[in-house]
Amino acid sequence: MPPDACQQPAQHSRLLRLYSALFYAGSSFVITVVNKTVLTSFRFPSYLCMGIGQMIATLVVLYAAKMSKTVQFQDFDRTIPLKIFPLPLLYVGNHITGLASTKKLSLPMFTVLRKFTILMTMILEVFILRKTFSKRLVYSVVAIVFGAMVAASSDLAFDVEAYSFILLNDAFTAASGVYTKKKLGTEGLGKYGLLFYNALLLVIPTLLASAYTGDLHMALTFEDWVEAPFVFCFLTSCFMGFVLMYSIVLCSYYNSALTTTVVGAIKNVAVAYIGIFVGGDYLFSWTNFLGLSICMSGGLIYSYHTFKETSAGSNAEGAQELKIRIGEDSTGKPSAN
């Protein structure tokens, strides 16, 4: 497989790349606030049913857009599951391991171990998408991971099961991002088809799982369904779930899976900064604050160099690239460059 087989972000204009990243960061921040309101302020009992609502919203919006010819993607046929495989499995694995690790880990350790998603995404882009990264981008990623480790260094309680779940969650998240980028080039599918059919193939199994675990019953018997503020927040969460998924696909399309992951990390650090001054649930320590600052600095440096690059600039720096590339010899067997 030749290097850079997938469309590179430098082929898109700098503004499109920047705006798609900002759109993703903004969408992620808004849905975090809305979900926290639904689950914490209103005490809605089911994460799973919120996810089902977001899948249904995705299906309704995209189907309506397809019927009105606002967007286009191919009709369903038996080739669709093969075209989007393994994205549905990665999504389910990501969801299950994410919930399990959230329950078992403290917030500081959850934060630091989630940053390994960035490193895993970089490695998978090298092996699956045959990408290369400049030294400056590699060093900025290392700075993000190092900063997260510093931030959590005061909370080093070791739990084998919890660590296993969070590292699996990192792997599922990284693989999902990289395969989303890869599948965006699939003929007849595109951004909208990828979103629509991924939700379509997941909604029924998720609904059955929700019914089996009792989550669906708890959600249906929730007493605040008659309260307009709750209904408004729940519907907003459903719609923002679609917006968030679209923003992730859009950011991955115009940039890279790694850039999308880094943008998410920057957003999370920004939320932590806000938590220092708003909310009252942040326990300040200089070690944690220093680690967050290193994380944010690494993320900003990564963003600066990523969005500064153009096609010409990238070619000019070719001699200085760190060659984390897997090449092929004349027999077709992989060999390290």
Automatic annotation (TrEMBL):
The keyword Transmembrane applies. It is a multi-pass membrane protein. Its main location: membrane. The keyword Plastid does not apply. InterPro entries: Sugar_P_trans_dom, TPT_transporter. It holds the Pfam family TPT. Residues 18-303 form the Sugar phosphate transporter domain. It comes from the Eukaryota. One of its GO terms (cellular component) is membrane. It is found in: Membrane. The chain crosses the membrane at residues 21-38, 44-64, 112-130, 137-156, 162-180, 192-213, 228-250, 257-277, 283-304. Keywords: Membrane, Transmembrane, Transmembrane helix. PANTHER family: SOLUTE CARRIER FAMILY 35. This is Solute carrier family 35 member D2.
